[in-house]
Design goal:
The protein has 267 residues and is of the alpha/beta class. It contains eight helices and five strands.
Length: 267
């Protein structure tokens, strides 16, 4: 079934009051929000549909439908796990995605969505690549080399916060970098404050980042932001046997305590 036809039926039956999807104008694809069933013919899906639309879900006050690739659905699972949205308030239209010519697509494990209400598109061949290969290469460097690598990368940051704004799991009403009393992180665009911002953000996403790669895609300075998140995701996998965004019924490791959790750092 075509996206527009399914969206039309859902709106007509009153199952949803709005659908979040993609539209294309003059060759530019952007998110769109459709309430009128007659407008559903605007909905498209092609290799320019980069945005992770789940970033809008926490702002919705009604039952909505959403067009979601497999990587985006991992974010939806995370938002449900963290009680930011109710599962029954979201109708997920999963898209079997062939890949969008993005770096993150080269190791995507979810070309065929596993969690959805409706599924559109032909089954895609799954990739068996190692998404942690870049992390392994960075870990081969000694501590000083790693420090210098990230110091140089973060020195290019202009603190536009596009990485934070595009992240579905960065939903705090007040971000720590916006607090001035006390001021935890200087607003000055300096090497040390840039480093502290990115380290703090990566740790905040520990066990939560689903690897959708949106932060790196929108970075105007092309900083490899996913590397830190992937490193922590790999650590969480090794320590807690947990992958973020895979099972809506599981609790993220930092939301619960188990007696057999890794605790050697306590001493």
């Amino acid at each position: 079934m075509e996206i527009s036809k399914l969206a039309y039926e859902l709106l007509e039956k009153g199952d949803i009051s709005l659908i979040i999807g993609y539209e294309e104008n003059n060759g530019i694809v952007s998110p769109c929000f459709i309430k009128d069933k007659e407008d559903t013919k605007r909905l498209i899906f092609n290799d320019k549909c980069f945005h992770n639309l789940s970033v809008y879900l926490t702002k919705m006050k009604e039952r909505v439908g959403i067009i979601a690739k497999g990587c985006d659905i991992r974010s939806i699972i995370g938002l449900v796990q963290e009680n930011q949205i109710k599962r029954e308030d979201v109708v997920i239209i999963g898209i079997a995605c062939p890949g969008l010519n993005l770096k993150k697509c080269s190791s995507c494990p979810d070309k065929n969505p596993k969690f959805y209400d409706y599924l559109i598109g032909e089954k895609q061949e799954e990739i068996k690549g190692d998404k942690f290969s870049e992390v392994i290469e960075i870990e081969k460097k000694n501590p000083k080399e790693r420090w210098n690598y990230f110091k140089n990368e973060f020195s290019r940051c202009i603190r536009c916060y596009a990485c934070r704004q595009i992240c579905p799991l960065c939903y705090c009403e007040t971000c720590i970098v916006d607090v001035s009393i006390p001021q935890w992180i200087s607003k000055a665009n300096s090497s040390s404050s840039n480093f502290l911002f990115h380290i703090t953000r990566a740790l905040h996403l520990a066990g939560r980042c689903v690897g959708c790669g949106e932060c790196e895609r929108v970075c105007p300075m092309k900083i490899p932001l996913s590397l830190l998140n992937l490193k922590i995701a790999n650590d969480v996998l090794e320590l807690f046997d947990y992958k973020a965004g895979e099972d809506v019924n599981l609790k993220p490791p930092l939301q619960e305590f188990k007696k057999d959790d890794y605790n050697e750092f306590i001493g």
